[in-house]
Amino acid sequence: MKNPAGIWINFGIVLIILLSFFTFSENYFPLLNSDMAVNILMTPSFSLPHDIYFWGQDRSGNLIPMVAHWLYMITLCQPVILVSIVHYFILAAGFWALTRFVHTGYGRIVLAMVWFFPPWHFLEFLLILYGIQASCVILALNFLDRSFSTRVQWKCLMWLSLSCFVFILALWVSDMALISILALLLMGGLYFLTAHKDSVKLFSWRSMLVPAFCVLILTIAGYLVLNYAKAVSTPVQSYNSGFLANPSSIISNLNIVLDSVIRVFLFSSESGIESVFAWGLLLIILVLIFSKKGHLKSWPKITSNPWFYFFFFEALLTFIAVLSSGWVAANGAGRRYFTTFFMSAWISLLLWLETLPENKIKKQFRLALLAVVIIGSLSGSFRFYYPEIKPSRIRVISALKSLGNIGIIAEYWNSYMSASPDPVHIKATPHDKDYVRNPELVKEVLEQPILYLVKDGWIDSFPDTIIQFGKTLKKKGKSIHIADSWLNRYEVIR
Fold it and tell me: Sheet holding 450-454: strands in order across?
């Protein structure tokens, strides 16, 4: 008979996932943008190797549109719905894989809140590739742990092979998964050094020969596949020019981070609720540091809880790598790069909390931490429900479907997003002076029977004629306001 408390915990987790889906998934998110919309546009026409990476670059593997495309071919369902489902299925799979390491109901509920309702500054964990990367890494860790837990060799090799495959998948999705592999090697090295001295944890080097050979073969295969993928994709020179930033860029990264943190603590950021979350978390940390019980010194042994050390190393290495990255500096040290650091730090905190002995102080700490997590979750979602419920962006721009088969030229952030309600009948591209991710889509836009220009964020007024992509376009009729944007019809005259 199942534990009733466990049933309620699982029910609460499912409810959290559903609430998150109806708030942040592509079909419901009020702040959907063109970067998110590219996955939707790829879904109906996805093909390899053209779409192996995000349009216009040699990184960010397209796992979501690839899976959504298969479902689209079977169901012909709206691409935005399929992308939303696939996206959250992967996030949910990563979360459930993580529950292998987080054992208590309390830890799982707190983790679900952090994973599916992160604070405002870390929302992009859910919205773009970093949540997918983390999910793939954790699935790989789950399979790896299963391989360690069985003494049947064929089962061990099966789980180990699955782990290697998903690690390759994670590297395809995001190059930052290399940090996770480095953290795993660091944790593994420390574990084996410690276990070698522990008679209970002794291991046989001979028994590791076959698994090691299996890992080596799969590593070589993965390298060849990823090397081929990058070779057939669009190179980004600034991304491939070198990882390490120069000292001034590192200092710039650090200044941006410090300025952002200070703004949060001074209630000067976008979310006052997040400031309350930050102060509450800081207070809890200070209590832990100055506690007479010395909880911070109660580190678990690596032989009893190795995964705590993995997530701790991953958080530390990610933070160092992001601050030292030239690519991060070139992109203004965006908060999105710190989302995996935030998640790894929370996971390690929860794993550490589970190792503490049960007492009154631990119960008080757990209650305080739960309150802080709830406040943090509200900071990322509250504005979408109060003082009014914000409509999904897809619902607003779905008005464009009434215009039929159309092509749209717009500023980048209004371009690909405009086609997301129906990418089969609506074709869109940024204008020729903006970031055109997919040049092949330009031809499809210009071949549509009706062509519109969107002036928002681009031009002050619609000109009588304009040259775009070497074609002269002539204004036709009056401008219209639809889907919260100003559009005017144009026709190609030469």
Answer: 426-430, 406-410, 450-454, 485-492, 471-482, 465-468
Cα separation, 258 vs 213, in Å, equals 45
Query: How many distinct helices (H) and strands (E) make up the chain?
Result: 20, 6
CA proximity to 322, closest of 214, 465, 175, 489: 175
Q: What is the pTM of this model?
A: 0.92
Torsion-angle region of 294 (φ positive above 0: left; ψ -120 to 50: alpha; else: beta): left
Going 410 to 414 to 417 to 419, the CA torsion angle's sign is negative
Question: How confident is the model over 302-331, as pLDDT tens digits?
Answer: 888 899 999 999 999 999 998 888 778 777
Residues 67-102: tens digit of each pLDDT: 999 999 999 899 999 999 999 999 999 999 999 999
For 97-106, 122-131, 164-173, 282-291, which range has the lowest pLDDT when averaged over its residues?
282-291
Give the 3-state secondary structure of residue 55: coil
CA atoms within 13 A on the CB side of 95: 25
Q: Which residues on neighbouring strands pair with residue 474, listed in sequence order?
A: 465, 491
Q: Which of 489, 472, 462, 482 minimizes the C-alpha distance to 407?
A: 489
